[in-house]
Structures are given as C-alpha cells and as structure tokens.
Design a protein that fits this description.
Number of strands: 8
Strand content: 25-35%
CATH superfamily of the largest domain: SP0830-like domains
CATH class of the largest domain: Alpha Beta
Radius of gyration: 16 Å
Distance between the termini: 28 Å
CATH architecture of the largest domain: 2-Layer Sandwich
C-alpha cells in the first residue's frame, strides 16, 4: 500500500499522558519542531496536553501515529501513545455527538478517541460501572457524559483502555471544538 500521495491532508494528533502533574514533560515549542522535522506542515499546537494539528501527504493515520511516537521516543526518551485522526474522521465524530443534540452540559462532555474501531458487545460489561454517567460508542470514539464531572467517574481513559485492550486518549468538549476550529482554519492555508 502506498501511504504517500501528492495531496496534503489535515490531521489532528493527540498525545496521551504528557505534561500531567509535572510528569512526562514535553514543551509544545519542542513538539512543534519535532513535527516539522518529520516534514509535517502547517503545524499548530493547542494547550499543553499534546494536541497538534498538521498537514501531511502521508495517507495513513496509523503510519503517522507510529512515525510521531517513534520520534518522540528518540528525542525525549518517552513512550507516548499518539492517536492521529484525519480531519474527516474528526469532523464525523464531532458532528455526530448525540449529547450535544440532547442539550447536555458541555462542561461534563468528553470524547475518548480510540486507536481503532471496537465491537459493541463490551457495552453490557461497561454499563456495570457507569453509574449515573452516560456513554455511547461510535466507530473509534466514545462519547462520555460525566454527570458529576470527569474527576468522579469510573469511566476514565485508563478504564476504557483496560476493558477494550486498545489505546485511548480523552479530550473535553471545549478542547475538541477548538481543535476542530484550528484544523478547519489550517485547511485554508
């Protein structure tokens, strides 16, 4: 399979578990340079948790994820999972969020981005732990509404990674909305 093609695509990458509680520190300026050194273009970072919008002619999210993760390991000696979504996939997840149409409090709304699609038989088992929280699996994402806030839910990023046995990273709705806005503006460059 040819993973490169002459047309550039816009991508959003989300690093898992950096700059949390003073651990696994990576400055966003250094991360931006790392991406640029990988020949990724129009690189823009957003907040300190490792959100990066960029463009590339590589047409595989998995190939980009592996490339970025490997380079982070080489440069910073950190094993950091990186989840990359195309702008089309990111928009699809954004636009199909059922909790937004239900007028749920967006401060309690999160999206867990998964490294791959999952099958839905796990829902019954996860429901045992949900309590008052609500979740909906959609392709390679989980919409999560935390009734009492993310700090009090059992449905954490780590919980889903263990239950589903795949990589995941969680972003609040405000961050997801901002990343989408940045990505849309980068497409006009």
């Amino acid at each position: 399979m040819n993973i490169e093609d002459s047309s550039k695509q816009t991508y959003i990458s989300m690093l898992r578990g950096i700059n949390v509680g003073g651990h696994r520190k990576i400055k966003m300026d250094d991360l931006k340079i790392l991406y640029e050194n990988l020949q990724l273009e129009n690189v823009m970072t957003y907040i300190q948790s490792g959100n990066v919008v960029f463009q590339s002619n590589i047409q595989s999210c998995k190939a980009l994820s592996d490339l970025i993760s490997k380079q982070i390991h080489q440069q910073f000696q950190l094993d950091v999972p990186v989840i990359v979504k195309s702008i089309e996939e990111f928009n699809d997840v954004y636009e199909n969020n059922p909790f937004v149409t239900q007028n749920k409090d967006t401060e309690k709304l999160y999206i867990i981005f998964l490294s791959e699609n999952i099958n839905e038989p796990v829902i019954e088992e996860i429901n045992k732990y949900a309590g008052d929280d609500l979740f909906i699996i959609y392709k390679s994402a989980i919409y999560l509404f935390c009734t009492n806030g993310y700090g009090k839910t059992k449905l954490t990023n780590t919980f889903f990674e263990k239950k589903l046995k795949i990589l995941a990273t969680t972003r609040g709705w405000t961050t997801v909305s901002k990343l989408r806005e940045i990505a849309k503006s980068s497409m006009n460059k």
